[in-house]
Design goal:
- The protein is mainly beta.
- It has a domain of 148 residues: 7 Propeller (Methylamine Dehydrogenase, Chain H), CATH 2.130.10.
- 5% of the residues lie in helices and 48% in strands.
- The chain has a five-stranded antiparallel sheet. Strands 1-33-31-30 form a four-stranded antiparallel sheet, with no helix packed on it. A four-stranded antiparallel sheet has the order 6-7-8-9, with no helix packed on it.
- The longest helix is centred in the first third of the chain and has 7 residues.
- It is globular.
- 48% of the residues are buried.
């Protein structure tokens, strides 16, 4: 699920991983730009209680199409003398540009994404402490440079609104509505689409007894794609299908497919199989759902990225369930599925592809290297942390996570 994958990189989980995964700040070359924690964070994190040590991380959540604007945050987690994690001592969210550096969002929102044009950030804002001791209610919010934070009005009967994606210009936001827990996909989950003109509307109608998590919106904001479930609250099982919804039309349900990515105009969705076919799955508006298979000798695969025109898919092919059994593929109808990770199986942490499908970048935090593939030079390895992802325009590599005050962005080699 895209939302949970995003939130697995959010502060509680990321900082728990820091004890076992160490990705240092990028030394890099002179043409790479450092993305530093904000002065506000640096000042707040300097005070470490006696008997504790502080481990700082900088984590990017998203980038604009050309990498000129980034959104992320820094956190400091306390560890006691025995290495047990304690509380957060400081955190701060930021928007970064080369001209302005890291601009603090002043606790306005927890950042979940940034628009392709770099103007708009989405996230969640805490409403108030919850006296019952359960998760405090929060509401979705949208932040822009000129207007600051704009919270979304929740629909009646929902305690939470959680944004998950936004259109290229930031004018359309989609996300999740929940009464109990927005992080659980179950029969009570609902989805929303928000625009400044119309406000928040519920995506639907849904099939009887089915809940939905909106995970993606097309670049133009017209098409919403998400996951479906009929599980009771608190249950944990795979999604029951994928929905494709456009306002004014009947919701399309894809029972065979668990969505991982959507193309620019919403006419192609890629992901994994839900009905026994272990190949990567592709849906197009023209041809419906089909399996595009896996790499030779592998038992399963899933698509995780798709080109803007929907004709090129990148993803992960697996020989088994053990760590180190992943390979990275690129697929087109004419070439079929090819290995783009130098023929090496490893534990894939991230797969990114440029918007035109010409560049694929994959990374493995365990082995400590990334593989960059393009149509001219083929595959080439680079040590982490420099190239964990590629921008949509294919021109820049982004370091998404580091222990320390800075990550980096710069030209791909």
């Amino acid at each position: 699920m895209r939302l949970l994958a995003k939130l697995a990189c959010h502060w509680n989980v990321v900082l728990g991983l820091m004890a076992v995964m160490s990705i240092p700040a990028c030394e890099g070359s002179s043409d790479r730009l450092r993305v530093e924690c904000t002065p506000r964070f640096t000042a707040a994190s300097a005070d470490v209680p006696s008997g504790y040590r502080s481990v700082i991380s900088n984590h990017l959540v998203g980038a604009s199409f050309d990498g000129s604007a980034l959104a992320g945050g820094c956190s400091a987690l306390l560890f006691d003398r025995d290495g047990r994690p304690g509380d957060f001592s400081a955190s701060d969210q930021y928007r970064w540009t080369a001209s302005m550096g890291s601009q603090s969002l002043e606790d306005a929102i927890d950042v979940y994404g940034i628009s392709a044009d770099g103007t708009t950030i989405i996230g969640a804002a805490r409403v108030s402490p919850n006296p019952s001791g359960t998760r405090a209610p929060f509401e979705g919010a949208r932040w822009t440079q000129g207007s600051g934070k704009l919270a979304f009005d929740k629909l009646p009967n929902y305690a939470y609104s959680l944004p998950t994606d936004l259109s290229a210009d930031g004018s359309v936001v989609v996300g999740i509505l929940a009464t109990y827990d927005p992080f659980e996909l179950d029969a009570l989950s609902r989805s929303f689409r928000w625009t400044r003109e119309a406000g928040m509307i519920e995506v639907g109608p849904l099939p009887l007894g089915i809940g939905a998590h909106a995970e993606f919106v097309s670049a133009d904001g017209r098409v919403v794609v998400g996951l479906l479930s009929g599980d009771p609250p608190g249950a944990s099982s795979p999604p029951r299908g994928t929905f494709v919804w456009t306002e004014g039309t009947e919701m399309l349900v894809l029972n065979e497919l668990g969505a991982r990515a959507v193309n620019a105009d919403g006419t192609a969705v890629v992901g994994y199989s839900l009905l026994g076919d272990n190949g990567a799955m592709l849906w197009t508006a023209a041809s419906g759902v089909s399996s595009i298979g896996s790499l030779p000798g592998d038992g399963s695969a899933q698509g995780v990225a798709v080109s803007a025109d929907g004709t090129i898919v990148a993803g992960i092919s697996r020989a088994g369930t053990q760590p180190g059994a992943d390979r990275v593929f690129r697929w087109t109808k004419s070439t079929g599925m090819i290995d783009v990770a130098d023929g090496i199986a490893f534990s894939v942490a991230r797969v990114c592809m440029s918007s035109n499908g010409a560049i694929v970048v994959s990374s493995d935090a365990v082995s400590g290297y990334s593989v960059i593939w393009d149509q001219v030079r083929g595959a080439r390895r680079r040590p982490l942390p420099e190239f964990l992802c590629v921008t949509g325009d294919g021109k820049h590599g982004i370091q998404y996570f580091a222990q320390g005050q800075s990550v980096s962005v710069g030209p791909l080699p």
